[in-house]
Automatic annotation (TrEMBL):
SUPFAM superfamilies: Protein kinase-like (PK-like) (SSF56112). Residues 27-119 form the Protein kinase domain. Pfam families: Pkinase. Keywords: ATP-binding, Nucleotide-binding. Signal peptide: none annotated. GO terms for molecular function: ATP binding; protein kinase activity. Residues 1-14 have a biased composition (Low complexity). Residues 1-26 are annotated as: Disordered. This is Protein kinase domain-containing protein. It comes from the Eukaryota.
Length: 119
């Protein structure tokens, strides 16, 4: 991906990504982690630091901009950490803390019943 049309915003991350991090550094896009109505999430690796993240790729929109602003303000331990945001061509890319489990798995391991709605 070209870095020429990239704009980035850096968030507060415990892993301290490089100051000049760009999506171009995340060249090793790994497996898809999930897909929803608003975009897809991929496991990505920063080529400079080898740090793994989750990258949510969605169309550039007012909704995407609101999500970036919301995540930048969150500091709760139960909310995924926002690392950076990039606009490349027609896509908004949110780089987030990589979670090794999902909510459904977590609830099952804690013994909570999730009902048939979540299956």
């Amino acid at each position: 991906m070209s870095n020429n049309n990239s704009k980035s915003e850096k968030g507060n991350s415990p892993s301290d990504p490089p100051e000049e991090m760009s999506f171009s550094h995340l060249i090793r896009k790994g497996q898809p982690l999930g897909e929803g109505a608003f975009g897809a999430i991929y496991r990505v690796t920063d080529d400079t630091t080898q740090q793994e993240y989750a990258a949510k790729v969605m169309p550039t929109s007012a909704l995407a901009a609101r999500e970036v602003e919301f995540l930048k303000q969150q500091t709760h331990p139960n909310v995924v950490v926002f690392v950076a945001s990039f606009v490349e061509e027609d896509s908004q890319i949110l780089v987030l803390e990589l979670m090794e489990t999902d909510l459904l798995h977590y609830l099952h391991t804690k013994g909570y019943s999730t009902g048939d709605d979540f299956a």
